## 1
Amino acid sequence: AQRVTQPEKLLSVFKGAPVELKCNYSYSGSPELFWYVQYSRQRLQLLLRHISRESIKGFTADLNKGETSFHLKKPFAQEEDSAMYYCALFSGNTPLVFGKGTRLSVIA
Amino acid sequence: EAGVAQSPRYKIIEKRQSVAFWCNPISGHATLYWYQQILGQGPKLLIQFQNNGVVDDSQLPKDRFSAERLKGVDSTLKIQPAKLEDSAVYLCASSLGSDYLNEQFFGPGTRLTVL
């Protein structure tokens, strides 16, 4: 069965420090991976998807099939990045299986 | 454009009572999803509709949960009777299509508390 693991429930970093939110998945096929974000009092929204290979709000994520990972990275954290981040996997059988999420707290 | 609408935003009921949630997707979106998000967990898909047909309801507890999308637009999710473990946020999402290229847009959710 498909599974997404986000090992950290909470990640605290100082403003300007690099950020890495970890995501590992298990899926025997070719996965489509996404990062969703939920800012305080806002709706869950798509941040980026691996197929787009783009940087959104300074965040990037690279799919590493060998390590079955899709870690989210940003070189310099900003206070407005504080939010809940969810990694999600899409497969033909079950669209969007979500991880448990990581709360990012950026300290000024 | 207007986003996905859900009502009510909050609901408190006692166990064994019934409750219904309503969702209005973004206009033109053929695919509609209901997710359950228990505190501390990520959203879990309950049911997916394509127009007015069910595509996936494998994780829907059918002994107590039901959902419909009769006219292929808005949808209702019902729980009857509710249990304590049904306390969660129920999220509705919609997308133009069902494949991974179509972004899912989420509603604000309905927070259900079962006492």
Note: Chain B touches chain A at residues 3, 33, 40-45, 48, 56, 58, 91, 98, 100-101, 103-109 (CB under 8 Å).
## 2
Amino acid sequence: KAGVTQTPRYLIKTRGQQVTLSCSPISGHRSVSWYQQTPGQGLQFLFEYFSETQRNKGNFPGRFSGRQFSNSRSEMNVSTLELGDSALYLCASSLGLGWREQYFGPGTRLTVT
Amino acid sequence: GIQVEQSPPDLILQEGANSTLRCNFSDSVNNLQWFHQNPWGQLINLFYIPSGTKQNGRLSATTVATERYSLLYISSSQTTDSGVYFCAVGGGSNYKLTFGKGTLLTVNP
């Protein structure tokens, strides 16, 4: 089975722009979660989707949003980028419905200049 | 929310040595995972272990849920074991994982 895939792998944007990151979960997995990793804050939960519904959201400003499509693929969007948004963004998938083990993709490294 | 503490923060070993990494958590959990982050940033699943003991080759893990801690054992360490090891826990009805700050393991030849 193919693992979790994320695109793009690397991205450079300037302040004020917006960005969309994509995540394709493992086939059959219906839950997708997003995490941000920075040297200062470590790994922090952004949000989780299941069957196209956001089930949980972390403590991030409204500039961070996401969605999930009917095929379980997910996108996250960051608007009005700030320098502090530079981070590794990781996507994880799990079967859902009580099956909690999560599998992570390779991440998208976003640099905001 | 759940608090997760990992110790030690840094560990330096000679190849062939054994090590124990610890993860303490502040509340009951229904998910506990150990990960190894590779140099490119990907989190590699080591164990899904909300309770009990598991072994996989030179690695083993034990979670004592009633006492709110988990241990990751690495035996006969190799240089390829170097990297950051994360413990992550989840509780309640949602699937959110809360991560510890990690243990940076360096294995010298």
Note: The first strand of chain A starts at residue 5 and ends at 7.
